[in-house]
Design brief:
Largest sheet: 3 strands, antiparallel
Number of domains: 2
Number of helices: 6
Radius of gyration: 20 Å
Strand content: 15-25%
Order of helices and strands: EEEEEHHEHHHH
Shape: elongated
Length: 165
């Protein structure tokens, strides 16, 4: 690997461990040129790359970074951990690869992200929805907020409330 600090192509692996339920290998490396440490991730390259069919009919390769950037923008300065954002993107990407062989419409990707953002952070969901659903006025936003308020929010450990001691 090329060192991100000094651009030397000489390093050693210090630590290697499985991550993301075994789908990724995280490696800590140390540059033998400058001595600084950095992390790399190794994941299986999908044999069939997904193509995204955009709203205008154009096609482009699925790009995980585009998806992650959209989630980061929606979350803005909200108190959403970076790990939660990465997990959301991982889940959407895994679902897409399991359910589609070659092509997927951008509409479906957006709906999956919106559904997961709704459970993660309601403000981030509204931000994402306003861009994704192309709200034209405040009335559109209000209608979405009313629908959001009708859904019961999932509460972690909710099952415990109903268990008998």
């Amino acid at each position: 690997m090329i060192c991100p600090f000094c651009e030397t192509n000489n390093d050693k692996v210090i630590d290697s461990r499985s991550s993301e339920a075994g789908r990724v290998i995280r490696r800590r490396r140390q540059c033998l040129g400058c001595g600084k440490r950095f992390t790399t991730y190794e994941r299986i390259e999908e044999s069939t790359r997904l193509t995204v069919i955009k709203r205008d009919g154009s096609r482009e390769p699925f790009n995980r970074e585009n998806l992650l950037n959209g989630v980061r923008i929606a979350c803005g300065k909200r108190p959403v951990a970076e790990d939660a954002k990465l997990q959301l993107v991982d889940e959407v990407e895994d679902e897409l690869h399991r359910t589609h062989d070659r092509e997927v419409e951008s509409r479906e990707i957006g709906e999956r992200v919106a559904r997961k953002l709704r459970a993660l952070d309601e403000i981030a969901y509204v931000r994402f929805a306003s861009e994704y659903y192309q709200f034209r006025n405040v009335g559109d936003i209000m209608a979405q907020l009313e629908e959001l308020s009708l859904h019961a929010r999932d509460v972690k450990e909710q099952q415990r409330l109903f268990e008998t001691p």
